[in-house]
Amino acid sequence: MSLEVQDLVVEIAGRRVVDGVSFAVTDGERFGLIGESGSGKSLTALAVLGLLPEGATASGSIRWDGVELIGMPDRDLAKLRGDDIGMVFQEPRTALNPIRTVGRQIAESVRIHERIGRREARERAIAEATRVRLPGAEGLIDRYPHQLSGGQRQRVALAMALAGRPRLLITDEPTTALDVTIQAEVLELLLSLTSEHGMALVFITHDLAVLSQVATHAVVLEHGRVVEQAPVSTLLSTPSSPVTQALLRDATATLWHPDAAPDGGAS
Question: Which residue intervals define the domain ABC transporter in the entry (predicted)?
Answer without folding.
Answer: 3-248
